[in-house]
Amino acid sequence: MQIPTIVGAGLIVIGAGLGIGRIGGSAMDAIARQPEASGKIQTAMLIAAALIEGIGFAALFAA
Amino acid sequence: MVISTRTLRFTIAVFIAGLPLFSFANPVSDTTKVQTEVSHAVADTTHAVAEASHEAHAEPTDAKSKIKAFINHHLLDSHDFVFSANEETGEHYGFSLPIILWDGGLQVFSSSKFNHGESVAENNGNYYVLHHEKIYKTDAAGTLKEGHGGHPENVKPLDLSITKSVVGILGIALLMFLLFTSLGKSFAKNGGISKGPGRIFEPLVLFVRDEIAIPNIGEKKYKKYMSYLLTIFFFILFLNILGLTPLGFNITGNIAITASLAILTYLITTLTANKNYWGHIFWMPGVPTPMKFILAPIELLGTFIKPFSLMIRLYANILAGHVVLMSIIALMFIFKSWIGSTLSFGLAFALSLLEILVAFLQAYIFTMLSALYFGMGNEEHHHDEAHH
C-alpha cells in the first residue's frame, strides 16, 4: 500500500533532479557563450528551476 | 575600525549559521546533559541519571521516537512560548501567551492554564483541553472521545489565540514598520543618501525594483505593485531568517501563512488584470477555433495552479529545511559517540549556511513569480498574433 506511492514519489524526484540538472547545465553553457547576458539567463534559469521544484515537492507531500 | 568589512560580514554569517545549533541542542534527555544538571539539583536526580542511562541503552527506539515527537512538535504552531524544557523535572522555560476562543462568546485566558497540554483549562464554566496544539471542548475530567483517523470527536471552538507564530508575525511587522519608516526619514534628512541600516536595505530595495519589478511588469506600470512586492519580499525574508534563530519559530514553514500570501498574490493578479489577460484565458488568440474551447478550461485552471504552486514551494522549502536540519542535529543523540557529534555539528553548520541562501532565494522566487503574474495580467497588445 505504502510502497508504490513512495516509489512513485522517488521517480518524480529523480525526474525533477535530472530536469534541474539540465537547466543548470544549459544555463552554464549559455553563460559561457554569452557572458554579457548572464543576468537574464540566471533569472530565467531560476524561474524554470523553481517551477520544477514545485512538482518535486508536490510529489514528496503526496508520498 | 580595526575589523575590515569583510571579516565583519563573515563573523555575522558564522554567528547566524551557528544559531540553530544552540536551539535544538536539547531535544531528548541525554545522559551527559542530565549529569551536568546533577551538580545543581537535589539528591534523588542521581536516581534519574541511572534510570535515564539505563533506558537509553535498553531501548534505542525510544530516543528515536522522542526525536520524532520533538521535530513534529517544532513544526507545529504552539500556544505558549517555550525556549527549552527539562524532561526529567518537567520544568518549562518560557512564557505563556493569551488564548482567545470564540465559543458562544469571547473566552480569553492565559495558556498557563493548560500547563503545556497536561491539564484541563477552565474558563467561565467551560473546559478545554490542548491536544496536539489544537483546542477541544471537554467536560471537567478532560476526556477526549476517540474519533476515526486518530482525531478526537470533541467540538473545536474557533481559535483566535495569539500563538507563537502570531507573536513572530507581529514582531516582524513592528520591526519592518520601524525600520522602513526610519529609513525613509533618513533619506529625507540626508538629502537622498541613506544612513545606518539604510546602507544594507537600500541595495535590496533597488534590487527588487530593478531586477524583479521593472523587467517583469514593465516601466509604465511597475510603480503600483512596488509596495506589495517590497512588503512580501522583506516579510518572507525576515520570517525565513527568524526561523533560523534559536527562538524556534517555524512561520513560513506553516501552510496557512504561505496560503494567505498566495491568496493575496492571486487577488491582486485577478483584480488588476486587463482585458488582454482575460482574452488570453477564455479566447486564446492565434489558435484554431476548436482548440480555443479546449484551452479555455486549462488556462482557467492554470490561474489557480499558479498561486497554489507559490504556496507549496515556500512552505515545502522551509519545512524541508527545518526537518533536515533538526534530523542532522538529532544524529548526535542516536550515535552517542564522538563521531556522531562531530559529524552532526559539521553537517548542521554547513546546512545552516545553505539555509541562509534558501531564505534569500525563496523570498526572491516568491516575489519574482508574483511580479511575473502581475506582468502577465498587464500585458499590452503588442505584436500581431498571426504567427503564433
TrEMBL record, chain A:
Lipid bilayer topology: Multi-pass membrane protein
Pfam families named in the record: ATP-synt_C
One term under GO cellular component: proton-transporting ATP synthase complex
Occurrences of domain V-ATPase proteolipid subunit C-like (ranges): 8-61
Keyword hit for Cytoplasm: no
Subcellular location: Cell membrane; Membrane
Keywords recorded for this protein, A-Z: ATP synthesis, Cell membrane, CF(0), Hydrogen ion transport, Ion transport, Lipid-binding, Membrane, Transmembrane, Transmembrane helix, Transport
GO molecular function: lipid binding; proton-transporting ATP synthase activity, rotational mechanism
Spans through the membrane: 6-23, 44-62
PROSITE patterns in alphabetical order: ATPASE_C
Family: Belongs to the ATPase C chain family.
Listed name of the protein: ATP synthase subunit c
Native source organism of the sequence: Flavobacterium shii
Organism classification: Bacteria, Pseudomonadati, Bacteroidota, Flavobacteriia, Flavobacteriales
TrEMBL record, chain B:
Transmembrane portions of the chain: 166-184, 228-249, 255-274, 314-335, 347-374
Coiled coil location: none
Annotated Gene Ontology cellular component terms: plasma membrane; proton-transporting ATP synthase complex
Compartments where located: Cell membrane; Membrane
InterPro entries: ATP_synth_F0_asu, ATP_synth_F0_asu_bact/mt, F0_ATP_A_sf
Pfam families: ATP-synt_A (PF00119)
Main location: membrane
Protein's membrane topology: Multi-pass membrane protein
Alphabetical list of CDD domains matching this protein: ATP-synt_Fo_a_6
Leader sequence residues: 1-25
Record keywords, A-Z: ATP synthesis, Cell membrane, CF(0), Hydrogen ion transport, Ion transport, Membrane, Signal, Transmembrane, Transmembrane helix, Transport
MF term (GO), any: proton-transporting ATP synthase activity, rotational mechanism
Function noted in UniProt: Key component of the proton channel; it plays a direct role in the translocation of protons across the membrane.
Family: Belongs to the ATPase A chain family.
Descriptive protein name: ATP synthase subunit a
